[in-house]
Amino acid sequence: MARPALRPLRICRNSLLSYSCTPQRSILATITATIPQNNLRQPAALRSHLPTQRLYHSQHHPDLPPHEYTNSQTTILSAALKHVPAHGFTKDALVLGARDTGFLDVSVQLLPRGEFDLILFWLASRRGLLRAAVEQNGLLATSDGVNAIPASVEEKTKTLIMKRLRMNKDIRHQWQDALALMSYPSNIPLSLSELHALSSDILHLAGDASVDASWYTKRLSVSAIYASAEVIMTRDSSPDLAATEAFVTRRVEDSKAIGDKLSGAKQCLGFMGSTAVGLGRSWGLKI
Amino acid sequence: MSSRSLWRSLRLASKRQFAVPETQYRCFSCSMRTQNQPKSDKDRMTHFGFENVPEHEKESRVGAVFSSVASSYDTMNDLMSMGIHRLWKDHFVRSLNPGSALPSRNVDSAEKGWNILDIAGGTGDIAFRMLDHATNINHDHHTRVKIADINPDMLAEGKKRSIETPYYNTDRLSFMVGNAEHMPSIPDNSVDLYTVVFGIRNFTDKQAALVEAFRVLKPGGVFACMEFSKVDNALFNAVYKQWSFSAIPLIGQLVAGDRESYQYLVESIEQFPTQEEFRGMIQKAGFMIPGRGFENLTGGIAAIHKGIKPLSRV
């Protein structure tokens, strides 16, 4: 009974590596057969029926839309954004937006979260604009061709953070109210996930490709820099947000310095550890 | 001993109610419908609590129930829900935020403020709250509410109460006897906000009422409905069912002297579709659903459903 089971192993006996290759290949074959992978090789237009909730991400996937509002909701929200500089992120702005687009005052019921929806839409749409600025308008492209030194990830990150902050310029005086509303306990989870989405987008656009624990620390530090810079921005009256820019520059340097110090400390600890091991061995310890 | 026997009778009573499976009715009525499609209205059956009655009879039997409870309506609501129904109603009105806080762009005073139609709002509970909210919160003195109810006794109760409010005998408050499934006196596209609070459960044909709501609403107008619904937590559901099937009819018997009406009330709650089913019915009538489409109150004992009539594409 054991013989037929052994037969496939005997076939690839001549190579050491292939001793274990046959069963593996067959498993792979069954996996690829069950997953409709050829779907992913089709152009984006044909892939539209794929579910939007994915378990993994790939740069070959088409970008997810920055928000999940329906057409009517988007119509009202986009019109309402025009009233934000005058009325702030309030129900009034929503009502005026609804009136502008032919809806009734009561139609703002379309947005179950009310003015918080307006804030979320602002954040999500600006994030979409940032993405478009890089991918379509070449925000980070180096201007003078071959000789230019490609900017480092830190510099790109800083440029992107400033680009995003400058989008807030017109509504800067209303932003403290929005921050207050975002820190309302029931709104915190959505606000944080939007902040994470922004920092993730910024790092992705800056070309960061870390796959280890620094994936988390980098997003955390970009989030922290962006969130604190937003608060500075609300009180910044200097032309073209110069004070905010200086603040962001200092914070990016800080986080770089902290990163350098941490890796220095890690290196130092590593040396001390290996010295201790060497010392122990010289004393005859079995390590 | 007496208390124990009372307890036992209550438990048995509640168990009897549970023993009637919900699906039995459905199968029966479905098969009736498929077999007797061409037959007249008279022979179609609908549910009245756990009973099956001919459709033409339901209206009069519901009418009898509410005529009998009209006078003790508020006391009973307070006792049955332990006062929570007031919080629900306040939340409902606050979330709708009736009244225009911003000056209207229309110069015509007939177009200022909102046109609100409150269906099955006989005692004026919701109507007075909405007028108060519009006046005091949004400083809108033009928003009008029309209360429609199929039952003249409930409307009489509402009229009596309206004397105490500042809206008595003004053009901001009006009353109308009418059937929500067919309201020819209300023109198409004339209503900003259509509310029905703890009423749609008693309608004979809910889908027809939703279609009628869609007709009378202006494009962009809102259908808002608060109704008893299904509790999502199994443990809480057990407690709630125990309360509704044993305590509520008893309270009804002791306070209002009318056990049958309150027995009907809890049975009709049991028969009402789930949140998802009802959302589907609202969508079927043509409404857009904001977000999830419903909001559960107190773990799903009640739920607020909303639908928005889309703008017509010209």
What does the model show?
The complex is a heterodimer of chains A (287) and B (314). With 287 residues, chain A is mostly helical. Chain A has helices spanning 2-11, 21-34, 71-81, 84-87, 91-100, 115-135, 153-167, 175-182, 188-205, 214-234, 242-282. In chain A, helix 3 (71-81) crosses helix 5 and helix 7 runs antiparallel to helix 11 (242-282). The longest helix of chain A has 41 residues, at 242-282. The radius of gyration of chain A is 27 Å and the shape is elongated. Chain A starts with a helix and ends in a 5-residue tail after the last helix. Mean pLDDT of chain A is 79; it is low at 1-51. Chain B has 314 residues and is α/β, with parallel strands linked by helices. In chain B, helix 1 packs across helix 9 (234-256), helix 5 crosses helix 6 and helix 9 packs antiparallel against helix 10. In chain B, the strands form two sheets. Chain B has a seven-stranded mixed sheet with strand order 5-4-3-6-7-9-8, sandwiched between helices. In chain B, strands 1-2 form a two-stranded antiparallel ribbon. Chain B is globular and about 55 Å long. Chain B has helices at 2-19, 22-35, 55-69, 73-81, 84-96, 125-137, 152-162, 206-216, 234-256, 259-271, 275-284, and strands at 45-48, 51-54, 115-119, 144-149, 173-177, 191-197, 217-228, 294-297, 302-308. Chain B has eleven helices and nine strands. Classes of the chains: A mainly alpha (287), B alpha/beta (314). Chains A and B meet through helix 5 of A and strand 7 of B.
Q: What's this entry about, in short?
A:
The complex is a heterodimer of chains A (287) and B (314). Chain A is mainly α and 287 residues long. Chain A has helices spanning 2-11, 21-34, 71-81, 84-87, 91-100, 115-135, 153-167, 175-182, 188-205, 214-234, 242-282.
- Described by the principal axes of the CA atoms, the overall outline of chain A is elongated
Gap from first CA to last CA of chain B: 74 Å
Please count the helical segments of chain B.
Answer: 11
Distance between the termini of chain A: 48 Å
- The helix fraction of chain A, in percent, is 55-70%
CATH superfamily of chain B: Vaccinia Virus protein VP39
Largest interface: A-B, 20 and 25 residues
Write down the overall geometry of chain B. globular
What CATH calls the topology of chain B is Rossmann fold
Kindly estimate the percentage of residues of chain B that lie in beta strands according to DSSP.
Answer: 15-25%
Q: Can you tell me the number of structural domains of chain B?
A: 1
Pattern of helices and strands of chain B: HHEEHHHEHEHEEHEHHHEE
Enzyme class (chain B): transferase
GO cellular component, one term (chain B): extrinsic component of mitochondrial inner membrane
Family (chain B): Belongs to the class I-like SAM-binding methyltransferase superfamily. MenG/UbiE family.
Membrane topology (chain B): Peripheral membrane protein
